[in-house]
Amino acid sequence: MSAPDTAGTGRAVEISGLRKSFGANEVLRGIDFHVERGEVVCVIGPSGSGKSTLLRCVNLLEEPSAGTVRVGGVEVTDPDVDIDAVRRRIGMVFQSFNLFPHLTALGNVTIAQRKVLKRDRAEAERIARENLERVGLADKVGSYPAQLSGGQQQRVAIARALAMGPEVMLFDEPTSALDPELVGDVLGVMRGLAETGMTMLVVTHEMSFAREVADRVVFMDGGVVVEEGPPSRVIADPEHERTRGFLSRVLDPAAARVEGSGPSDKFGSDGANA
Amino acid sequence: MTAEQAAAPARPGGLSRRSRRRLSLGGQYGLFIVVVVLIAALANWPQLHTNFANWQVAKGLFPDIITVGLRNTALYTAVGFGIGLVLGLVIALMRLSPVLPYRWFATAYIEMFRGLPLLLIFIFVGVGVPLAFPGTTIPGGAVGQAGLALGLAAAAYMAETIRAGIEAVPRGQLEAARSLGMSQGRAMRSIIIPPLTNELVLLCKDSSLVLFLGITLEQRELTKFGRDLAGQQGNTTPIIVAGICYLIITIPLSLLARRLEARQRRERR
């Protein structure tokens, strides 16, 4: 139904020579990478490394300064492309949920189906209920966002994106705004989604999720891709010094100081240890 | 009592907190009773009755005060509100436009009409326009003139409210709507405007108060109706009745607005 002419044939996401500047600040300095269909790719890296900007360039919430982005073979960066038609095929989940506060969970999941895909109310609600059940919120259909916990809101946001039948799902630090005890529910839903073969591009700080679920991990720093590969290599045995430094800080913040493997370490190995 | 006193910590030379509270409350009730008694004893009730609540005079006001006065007031308000809302929306969008001259115009309009007394705008529309352009008539007669004058002024206030409402919508909600494939216009209509409707009803209440200010045009509305009859009959009752008619409109509106405010708070909690 939704614009068969834009239905993709190529790789799920293909990015080449991508650059993005905000004023004089160049956040992305030439990114080349891709996501195959059915692949789960996790992007990791220190804050300010450009991970979120990269993700937002994929559905053009940020307009790239240079380079091309293709989604399913369609060049998103082409000014003649109907961006709304492309975005229909890309689901996005935000760090801060961004639910519509004046609508119930059901309303949040049905509104775009009805207004954008022109589904009738009965069909949109049936699909909404299916997806809310899929994220474990069948009993919260009538609740407003303000009545839900952060983890529940984020799962409604995932259901909202899934109800559009996307080919690719983008996750922008989906658990970073959550209390620690709520993170597991959201990651569980994402894990289940990955198992169904959904193509996913995930910006995250959850290393255990990246290690267990990702087919490929991309480490970014300073606006470039430093290293990429299967998690068994990038996380367990990274090649680059910068990757190692980042991972040691993230995986064991307390030990990072003691071992002195990070470049920012001023104490040396015998400082606090002796 | 004794147990209580024993339990209270000893405070040399002072009262306990409980005693102070009792004393203060007792004082306030005492003052209230004294005032009520004084008013009841000193007021000239028969004279108040004949002047302010004269049933004879009041009965004579009906049904005209409703069919002419109240009807016209409601009509002017509705027309003025409609014109103000449409014009206010346009000006709010101009105020937010990337086109610089639009922003200038909107800002100038808002500052001008918020700074002018409503009476001056009425005179301008009712007298100034026909003088300046002989032969032109504002369509709709008195209703058209009053509605236009009220709408011009109300638009300036509404534009500011609408603009504030649009700017208050978190950017993330707009991004979420866009990432679901909604166009800018569709996102505005489906996501940005609906929460504003609550605000618009609140605005209706406020503007209705502004709009009830004096109307100097021929066709009589409540205030003029009451004043004229009070003059004719040498009695204040018509003004009181006119006042009650206003309250019949404004009090339900206030209650509605309060309920909507409460709902909004619940949703945003």
Order of helices and strands of chain B: HHHHHHHHHHHHH
Ends apart, CA distance between termini of chain B: 44 Å
How many helical stretches of chain A?
10
Structural class designation of chain A: alpha/beta
CATH architecture group name of chain B: Orthogonal Bundle
Number of strands of chain B: 0
What average pLDDT do the residues of chain B reach? 77
Tell me the series of helices and strands of chain A, N- to C-terminal. Answer: EEEHEEHEHHHEHEHEEHHH
The low-confidence runs of chain B, each spanning 5 or more residues with pLDDT under 50, are: 207-218
Number of domains of chain B: 1
Instruction: Say what oligomer this is.
Output: heterodimer
CATH topology of chain B, anyone? Answer: MetI-like fold
Contiguous uncertain segments of 5+ residues of chain A? 1-8, 258-274
Radius of gyration of chain B: 27 Å
Structural class of chain B: mainly alpha
Spatial gap, N to C terminus of chain A: 68 Å
The percentage helix of chain A is: 25-40%
The count of strands of chain A amounts to 10
Percent strand of chain B equals under 5%
Quickly count the helices of chain B.
13
Characterize the structure shown.
Chain B: It is a multi-pass membrane protein. Chain B: This is ABC transporter permease subunit. Chain B: Residues 70-257 form the ABC transmembrane type-1 domain. Chain B: It is found in: Cell membrane. The complex is a heterodimer of chains A (274) and B (269). Chain A is of the alpha/beta class and 274 residues long. Chain A has helices spanning 51-58, 83-87, 105-115, 121-134, 150-162, 180-195, 207-213, 231-234, 241-251, 253-259; strands at 13-22, 25-35, 40-44, 66-71, 74-75, 90-93, 168-172, 199-203, 216-221, 224-229. Chain A has a domain at 100-165. Chain A has 10 helices and 10 strands. In chain A, the strands form 2 sheets. A 6-stranded mixed β-sheet of chain A has the order 6-7-8-3-9-10, with helices on both faces. In chain A, β1 and β2 form a beta hairpin. The longest helix of chain A is centred in the last third of the chain and has 16 residues, at 180-195. Chain B is mainly alpha-helical. Chain B has helices at 2-7, 17-42, 45-52, 55-61, 64-95, 100-115, 118-132, 141-168, 171-179, 184-192, 194-211, 222-233, 237-268. The relative contact order of chain B is 0.12. Classes of the chains: A alpha/beta (274), B mainly alpha (269). Chains A and B meet through α2, β6, α3 and α5 of A and α9, α10 and α13 of B.
